[in-house]
Each structure stands twice: as structure tokens, then as C-alpha cells.
User: Which sequence fits this backbone?
């Protein structure tokens, strides 16, 4: 279904309809193209496709119709010009920085990022001569103080994982532009349904499509969204040459996920806010972290950047690791796993799983204590979620 412009359509319609050209079979559901290569009408057409003189499919590592449909749809949803689908969220981050940075460049990153992303920056990018400085997610003065003449990019995820810290994207955008640096935002926790960083001044948006975009924990993938030159040429060029490609089947799964993203995010947020309020009143809970709560340090900021609080709730129990594990181990329904964004509610002890490779000093600096539990709130009855958590909370 093709239009000259999707500007007059709502997000939900774009998520269902945009980016797909029906084949001669006249199918109503997007087709999957599980092919490694494509035929050409002539040797001349093959030469033109490989040289770029003619647009079209070449090789599924970097041109596949199913992947392209996902890319075009997500780009429209985020308000970007181009999107590059990748094999995972981590490969989206790697592709972005390998494409845009060179030896001698400097990156400023929030210290409140996913543990594996922090390892990528500190252990691997450093091997290529890229220096990374970690700063407070919420203290703009630390970002400003960290800027150097060779600063190439700012990177953060907002809200953060797992403490849901909200960064001021407008302020960071202004500082990045003043510093001639790119502002790169991981938006996988909000998705474009709740937050559009490009409209708030970001240059690039990154997704772990594995999370809420899929929404049912089925496949792994990532995406990079931005303008035609930086993402469409530089990041796509890295993906084409180095090969961290999204598979056609996974792209098709993500397309099906996008169709229900708006209604799912609304339900995730409603359940999460209800659960956060319940946890905040529980006598065995020390503190709750959720941007939709008025007690959240960046509540007012979140109200200006996000249309709702999201599906991630974290809380500290009274006690330590022993008490946190007791709560987790006494659940019967919740899934004990480290993924998030699923229709099934997931419970995680971040300090010993997702952030276990982060040095203890750095974990404590970012507030990831042994008594912290993260909940990715699913779409079950919220009353059943509460009952399941109460089994363990009532024992500590």
C-alpha cells in the first residue's frame, strides 16, 4: 500500500499499513522472501544493480523486500528518513559506532546503560582507539564537562535500564549540537508509540527490536533510524560490508509485532502504573522506580517527553540479595528471565544477570544494588501479577 506521504495518517495506521508493496499474488499479509539472491533480466541490469545505478534487490545480506518493509515502516513511525535493520540490538549499536567513529574519536555515554553495551564501549571500542567517558544520565553539567574537541557522539537510553532514569533530550540535543556531536538515543523501552527522540533533537534512534517491537519474545533483531546520509549511507554501508543483517523471517515477525504495538504499549503502561502504585504502598518495599509515579525524580520531565511511563518497573525490597532472591524464587507465574518487552511478565535480579559483568563499584554508582528487582510488566491480569509478587514479599 503506497502513498506519496504518510503525514496525514496516525501512528497506529502507519504501524499496520506502511512500507509494503503488494506482490502480483495480491496477498493481504506481508510476504516473507526467504531467498539469498535475486535474478536479473540481463547482464546489464545485474551490473547496474551492483553499481547502484539502478535501485533494486541485489543480495539479502543488505537488500531484502521483507527487511525493507520493516525498515520503511519503523522509519515512518520514528519520524526518520532511513532505517537499517540489524541482527540484534547490540549489532545495531556496534554498527552505528563502527560506521561513524574512527581511532582517536571520543564518545560520551550515560553510565546508566545496559551492562553489555557498557562492555562493548569499555572493552571492545577501546581496542580501535575510541575513548568513551561515562557520565550521569541526569546531570547535564557532567555531559558538558566531559566534552572534548574530538567528541563525536553522545549515547544514552532513556528511560534507563533498570532504574528508569529519564534524560533531558532537548538539553542534551542543544549541547550535542553546540559540541558538533551526534546525539544517539536507545528508544527500545518507550518505542515510538510513547516517545520520538528525533522530534526532541536526537540525530539517531537505536532499537533492540527483540523487546517491545516484537512483543512476544520470539526473535532477535535491531534497528538504527536517522537521516539519509548518516544512517542511509554510513550505517547501511557498514551493515552491507560487515554483515550483521536482519533475517527476512525475523523482519516478518517484527512487522507483525508493529501492527499491535500501539495497543500493547497502552496496556503495558496501564498495568505498570497500577503495579508501581501497589508496590509503593507495600510495607516490604523500600523504593519504587517508575516514570509514571509522581515520586519519580524526573516525573515532570517524563511528562514532557513521554506519553506514558512505559512497561518497566524496578523496586528495592527491604533487605539485600537474599530477600530479593526470595521474592523472585517464590513467584509461580512470572517468568524468571532477563529479556523484557514481552506480553508475559518477567522478573529479573539485575545485579546478578544483565549487569553482572559490570564492576561492583560501577553498579553501585548507578544504583543497581543487590536488593533491586526489575519487572517487565506484561499483559496478564495485573491483580494476578500482584498476587504472584506478594507470595515472596510476604515472606521477607
Assistant:
Amino acid at each position: 500500500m503506497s502513498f506519496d506521504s504518510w503525514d496525514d495518517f496516525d501512528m497506529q495506521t502507519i504501524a499496520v499499513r506502511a512500507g509494503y508493496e503488494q506482490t502480483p499474488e495480491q496477498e493481504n499479509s506481508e510476504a516473507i522472501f526467504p531467498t539469498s539472491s535475486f535474478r536479473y533480466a540481463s547482464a546489464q541490469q545485474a551490473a547496474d544493480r551492483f553499481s547502484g545505478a539502478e535501485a533494486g534487490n541485489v543480495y539479502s545480506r543488505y537488500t531484502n523486500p521483507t527487511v525493507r518493509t520493516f525498515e520503511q515502516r519503523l522509519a515512518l513511525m520514528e519520524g526518520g528518513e532511513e532505517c537499517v535493520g540489524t541482527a540484534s540490538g547490540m549489532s545495531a549499536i556496534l554498527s552505528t559506532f563502527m560506521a561513524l567513529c574512527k581511532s582517536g574519536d571520543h564518545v560520551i555515554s550515560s553510565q546508566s546503560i545496559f551492562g553489555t553495551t557498557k562492555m562493548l564501549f569499555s572493552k571492545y571500542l577501546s581496542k580501535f582507539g575510541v575513548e568513551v567517558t561515562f557520565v550521569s544520565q541526569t546531570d547535564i553539567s557532567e555531559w558538558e564537562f566531559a566534552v572534548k574537541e574530538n567528541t563525536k557522539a553522545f549515547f544514552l537510553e532513556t528511560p534507563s535500564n533498570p532504574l528508569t532514569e529519564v534524560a533531558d533530550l532537548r538539553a542534551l540535543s542543544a549541547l550535542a549540537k553546540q559540541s558538533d556531536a551526534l546525539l544517539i538515543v536507545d528508544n527500545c523501552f518507550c518505542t515510538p508509540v510513547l516517545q520520538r527522540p528525533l522530534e526532541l533533537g536526537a540525530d539517531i534512534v537505536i532499537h533492540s527490536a527483540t523487546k517491545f517491537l516484537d512483543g512476544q519474545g520470539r526473535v532477535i533483531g535491531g534497528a538504527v533510524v536517522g537521516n539519509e546520509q548518516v544512517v542511509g549511507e554510513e550505517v547501511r554501508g557498514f551493515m552491507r560490508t560487515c554483515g550483521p543483517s536482519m533475517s527476512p523471517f525475523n523482519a516478518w515477525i517484527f512487522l507483525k509485532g508493529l501492527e499491535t504495538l500501539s495497543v500493547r504499549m497502552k496496556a503495558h503502561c496501564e498495568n505498570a502504573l497500577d503495579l508501581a502504585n501497589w508496590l509503593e504502598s507495600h510495607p516490604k518495599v523500600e523504593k519504587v522506580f517508575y516514570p509514571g509515579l509522581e515520586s519519580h525524580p524526573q516525573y515532570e520531565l517524563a511528562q514532557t517527553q513521554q506519553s506514558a511511563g512505559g512497561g518497566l518497573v524496578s523496586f528495592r525490597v527491604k533487605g539485600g540479595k537474599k530477600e530479593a532472591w526470595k521474592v523472585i524464587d517464590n513467584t509461580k507465574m512470572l517468568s524468571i528471565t532477563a529479556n523484557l518487552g514481552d506480553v508475559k511478565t518477567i522478573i529479573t535480579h539485575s545485579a546478578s544477570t544483565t549487569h553482572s559483568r559490570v564492576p561492583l563499584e560501577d553498579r553501585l554508582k548507578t544504583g543497581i544494588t543487590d536488593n533491586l528487582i526489575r519487572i517487565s510488566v506484561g499483559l496478564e491480569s495485573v491483580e494476578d501479577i500482584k498476587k504472584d509478587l506478594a507470595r515472596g514479599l510476604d515472606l521477607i
